[in-house]
Amino acid sequence: MPMTYIVRVLRRVLPPHAKISDDAKKTIQECVSKFIFFVTSEANETAHREYKTPIYPEDVTAGMASLEFNDYVEPLTVFLNKYRAEDPKRTASVQVQLPMAMRSAAQ
Questions:
Q1: Cα–Cα distances in Å, from 74 out to 79, 80, 87?
Q2: Measured between alpha carbons, how far is 82 from 87 in angstroms, rounded to an integer?
Q3: Domains observed in the chain
Q4: What's the pTM?
Q5: pLDDT (tens digit, 9 = 90+) per residue, 41-52?
Q6: If you count Cβ atoms within 10 Å of the first and of the last residue's Cβ in the chain, which end, N or C, has fewer?
Q7: In angstroms, how far is CA 29 from the centroid of its own chain?
Q8: What does the angle CA 44 – CA 60 – CA 104 come to, to the nearest 5 degrees?
Q9: Is 44 exposed, middle or buried (0-12, 13-18, 19+ CB in 10 A)?
Q10: How wide is the angle at C-alpha 77 spanned by C-alphas 72 and 83, nearest 5°?
């Protein structure tokens, strides 16, 4: 992930007067890159098990659940459904559901 994105996010969440060392920026960049790699790898495995070539949002949410990032799955699902509903070009009729493992826990 480009350093400019990392710095932009950090500036949004930190107080205006906060200083961010170069080492902190690099460390966060490495962590974010590894997180994206792990989630993408898990989503790819999910898609592969279902004989799909592209990775779909449902694969990402299933991957997040598989990696036990359960606190992020529901907000991600809600966001994705709202995102699709805002633009008719984005298959708004397709609603993402929670992964099977999470549906039983949510009820």
A1: 9, 10, 21
A2: 9
A3: 3-106 (1.10.20.10)
A4: 0.71
A5: 999 999 999 898
A6: C
A7: 16
A8: 120
A9: middle
A10: 125
